Amino acid sequence: MTGPEMVNGFTGEHLSAQPQHIRELIDRRAHLLGPGYQLFYTNPVEVSRGSGVHLYDSAGNEYLDAYNNVVSLGHCHPAVVDAVTRQLSTLTTNTRYLQADLLDFSERLLATFPAELDRVTYTCTGSEANDLALRVARAHTGNTGIIVTRNAYHGVTAEVAAFSPSLGPASPLGPHVRTISAPDPRRQGDAVTDLLRAEIRAAIDDLRRHGFGVCALVVDSIFSSDGVQPFPTDLLGVLAAEVRAAGGVYLADEVQAGFGRTGAGWWGFGRHAVVPDLVTLGKPMGNGIPVAATVLRHEIGREFGRNVRYFNTFGGSNVPIAAASAVLDTITREGLIENAREIGAQLLRGFAEIVSGYQCLAEVRGAGLFLGVEVIAPEDTGPDRVLAQSLVDDLREHFVLVSASGPDGNVIKIRPPLVFGTEDAALLLDRFADAATRVLPA
C-alpha cells in the first residue's frame, strides 16, 4: 500500500478506519496483485456494477460518476454490449486476414479527421499507440529528441514512460526528452504564447546540441495532467511550427481530449486550428473494451513501412473493432458532441458561480465535458493540494466521484461520461456547492 505518491491515491494511512470487508479486500490485493497498483481516494470505493453515469457498491449505494473517461458513453451502454456480444458469437481473429468490418470502420474513423490524416494502425492501449507513433516518427525524421510539457502523462510502456514526467522522479525521463511549461494564462498572462515559443526554441537547441535532433512534440490538447489548460487556442499551432521547422513532427495525444469530449468537434486539436502529423487514440474508443489507434499522414509512415513489419495480435481484431464501431455510431446517433458542448457550458456557468464565492477557488476552466477547478491556499494563493484532496474526499463520501490533477495535485478534475445530462450536471453542482461549504474556509 506504500509506494510512489499518486494524486488522489489511497496510501494506507486510513486503513484502520475502513470497514472490515474493505480491509479484507485491500489485504487480498496486497497479497495477490503485482507491484505498483494503487487505489483512488482516501477511503477507497468498492464497485460491483455500473449503469449509465452511475456506479454502485455492494451495499447498493449509487455514485454519480463525474470522472470516468474510459466508458465515455456511460457504463454498460447497450449499443456496445450488443455489438460485442454479437461479434463474440460470430468471429474474433486478427488483421492478417481480409475482413471488411475492419476496413469499413477505418473509413468511418478517418472521415472524422482532416483529409491529411489518411492512415490508421490499431493497438490495444493508448500507451501502445504512443509507443508506435514514436517509432514511426523516428523512422521518418531520423531523430530521437522528444519535447513534452512539464507534467505530461502519455503512457506506461518503458519507452512512453520516459516522456511522461507526471509519473514522478522514480520514473526518470530519458536523456532524449526535454520539457516545456504548459500554458497557464492565470500565471503567465498575455505573454503565454511568446513565453512557450521561447521555451520550445531553447529545448530544440538543447536537443540538437546533445546530438538527439528533434523527432516530435507530443501534446495532449487539453493539457490534462498539467491541470486542465484549454487556452489559448493559438498556442499549439505556434509550437508545431517551431518543431516542424526543426525537422520534427507534431503528435497529438487524443486519448483524453478526443471523441467529442471538448464539445468542439471530434478531436481536441480541432479547437486549436492545427492539423497534427500523427494522432493517438485510446481509452474511450471502445467504451471499456481495449482498443486504441495511431492515425497518421501516409507520408509520415512511409519509411517505417519500408523497413518494419508491424503486427499486434489484438489491435484491430474483430471484437474491439465492433465495440469501437458502436461507440462511433452512438456518439453520432445520440448527438453526444453537442451534448458535451451544452452540458459543459451548464457546468462551466455553475462552477463559475461557486468559485466566485470562495477566495481559495482560483478559477474554473474547461472545454465541453472536461473541466478543472483550481484550489489555492487562502493565506498565500499558492496551490493547496490538501484542500483539493479534502474536496475530492468529501464528494466521494457524498457519492460523487471526481479526482485531482496538475503538478501540485490542486486542480479538481471533472470529466464525466458524454451521456451526462442536465439533471446529472445539476446534481454535481449541488453536491460540489455543499462540499465547498463543509470543506472550504468562508
UniProtKB/TrEMBL annotation:
It comes from the Bacteria. Keywords: Aminotransferase, Antibiotic biosynthesis, Pyridoxal phosphate, Transferase. Signal peptide: none annotated. One of its GO terms (molecular function) is transaminase activity. Pfam families: Aminotran_3 (PF00202). InterPro entries: Aminotrans_3, Aminotrans_3_PPA_site, PyrdxlP-dep_Trfase, PyrdxlP-dep_Trfase_major, PyrdxlP-dep_Trfase_small. SUPFAM superfamilies: PLP-dependent transferases (SSF53383). Transmembrane segments: none annotated. CDD domains: OAT_like. Gene3D superfamilies: Aspartate Aminotransferase, domain 1 (3.90.1150.10), Type I PLP-dependent aspartate aminotransferase-like (Major domain) (3.40.640.10). Belongs to the class-III pyridoxal-phosphate-dependent aminotransferase family. This is Aspartate aminotransferase family protein.
